[in-house]
Amino acid sequence: MALLKTSLIHFDAAIRHGSIRKAAESLNVASSAMNRQILQLELEMGVELFERLPRGIRPTAAGGVLLAYIRRWNREASLVKQEIGSLRGGIRGTIRIAAAETFTEDVLPRAMTRLQAQFPHVDYTLISGDNQRITNELLAKEADIVLAYDVGNHIRAERVHSITEPIGVITAPDHPLSYKQEATLTDIAQWPLIAPGEDWLRHSGLKLLFEGEQALGRIVARAERPGILKALVRSGLGIALLSSLGAEREVAEGKLAWVPLADGIMEPARISMLVPRGRVQPVYMMVFIEILKREFIDFMQANAPARKRNEIDA
Asked: 279: which residues sit within 8 A by CB, 6+ positions away?
């Protein structure tokens, strides 16, 4: 199936063969018919498109410009046909995700599973790490989407969605702090504390809290990953600070308790969904972004009643 109008196909063939007669023979059409098509094309363009020579034809400057566009379109049309043809077996592609570890436990797996139901031939590459690493992946164009905490507005990327999430104290389920409605700095200072590691803390909003003048308590361990931090809290070694999203699964399973910090101690964490600026996204990527937004909205709505109850009970 030709995607170009007949006159453009005839013009391209005539220049390619250097002769209207030879081009007509190659396309199995009458020379007079091809000549009429090319004359009509020249009339539409308002310029002469080729010069007649003793031994054939050659494009004028205007004809050369038109020819370049025709051949570029032919290349693009070939790719279009290939991509549309691949849809017979389902859209294929890879989504490269760079995300804080917190999101790899629940939010991302749920979103990936939902997308798979619509696009079963799309696969994933998942990179986790601290904010510095995952935002570097985005800036180096090695990631299609980034999920990160507390990313500044200076980053050269498009922020497609963001939410704020309160920071709280995570404890073992039967810890004395777990029965409080909120935790103050005085409360925290009474208990051994498990702190984020230096690399984690350097790129986290928690840095301001740990570098503040008021002592938070005796630090008994430092953990470079949320998973290690939560495991140490579950063991009873100490308490720690984390967003409610970061402890969602363990709190739901009764393995941890989460208590929000009292107002004014620190700003909520800002979770950002970032994509490379100016990139045209394939359809499966646009769907995935909307699914991720929905996952965050659902999480916020599911946790809102519990927060509201805490406010009422207090």
From this structure: none
Q: What is the CATH number of domain 6-88?
A: 1.10.10.10
Class of the CATH-defined domain 167-267? alpha beta
**pTM of the full predicted structure?**
0.60
Query: Which of 310, 314, 73, 270 lies closest to 167 in space, CA to CA?
Result: 270
Q: Is the CB of residue 257 less than 8 Å from the CB of residue 178?
A: yes
Q: Which 8-state DSSP code applies to residue 242?
A: E
The answer to whether 259 and 180 are in contact (CB under 8 A) is: yes
Three-state DSSP string of 115-146: HHHHCCEEEEEEEECCHHHHHHHHHCCCCCEE
Q: Which whole number is the average pLDDT over 129-140?
A: 68
Please check whether the two domains, 90-164+270-313 and 167-267, share a CATH topology. yes
| Radius of gyration from C-alpha coordinates of the chain | 31
Give the pLDDT confidence of 251-288 residue by residue, as tens digits. 989 999 999 999 888 888 888 888 888 877 888 899 99
